[in-house]
Amino acid sequence: MKIREFAVEQWMNEYEETCRYNLAETCVRSLTTGELLNLSGRREDVLTELAATPLTYGPIPGSPRLRALVADLYAAQAPDNVLITHGAIGANALIHATLVGPGDHVVAVVPTYQQHYSIPDSYGARVDHLPLREDHGWLPDLDALDRLVTPDTRLIAVNNPNNPTGALIDEAGLTRIAEIAGRVGAWVLCDEVYRGVDQHGDGFTASIADLYERGISTGSMSKPYSLAGLRLGWIVGPTALLADVATHRDYTTISVGRIDDLLACVALENKDAVLARSHRITRTNLAILDEWVNGRNDITYVRPASGTTALLRYDAPLGSYEFCTRLLKETGVMFTPGAAFDIEHTVRIGFADDTETLRTGLRLVGQFLDGLAPTA
Predict the structure, then answer these.
(1) N or C: which end of the chain has fewer CB within 10 A?
(2) What's the predicted TM-score (pTM) here?
(3) Rounded distance between C-alpha atoms, residue 169 and residue 162, angstroms
(4) Are 242 and 83 in contact (CB under 8 A)?
């Protein structure tokens, strides 16, 4: 099997450990173990539970405790509708491996996380892209989706909230996608890894798993829950599908770690406190980014409605890889090149990490852009 290089992950792997100001980070500022224990209000009890945890394999589908907590993030799901995975990246890979084969037809929105078009392409599927347009708020044109879907469409892959743009499909839009898929009996995979940090309300938009009988939601502890180091995610969907997924999963993952499972339970049992912190960070930091963008005439964007990332369009005569490489070398600030998402003259910014790092990084980016401006 040959597969295209994963552009975003290769860029991150190259630079994120050595940059000074990481504005490419996509997680809400990570919690330390101590911070999580303090948020729980049960520090000593959790430490006692950790000390008693045997370091052997855990339940293969995830602990009953964790699956019940994940199910509670949805409106109409039970623990049997949940399968725990090695991150959302593992969840997405398992869905594509289970549902997609040579000659199948897949429709994927772009830009999105590259798994959703490169993996099915590597399996020999026919992959049609549905381009998101800046002048449409980076939201999918659902009439265009309707035209792309055919009687042999196997899977529609969307990403909500969207990475890299932060655009958010509302419940009416998701319902329309479900209707389009239902017309031909297609599955809908909705990568919902950023779900929970909408800029308004309680942070949660409806999930495709609650709206469509063939709707599949993937998520993880990484982004809104600030616990990427757990490497723990999930698939939520029909039980018959999860049984098929489990067959594939047996070849790649026996179980997630017991300690990871336990700490995820602690976080989800205290999700109100964890997400309140995440909402403070994402809403405060987006306001800072918004003020900076509005104060410049060489940067534009569509203000994100959710998530932790935005796609900035810059006015400079540099391709995005050259732009980001020079920026990193001259200032220590790291963005992700828009070309990694096949959208030139843009960069992806992650705005949900440390607030002071964001302020400093934006100031340095402004100085860099000013230095690129032609002199009279």
Answers:
(1) C
(2) 0.96
(3) 8
(4) yes
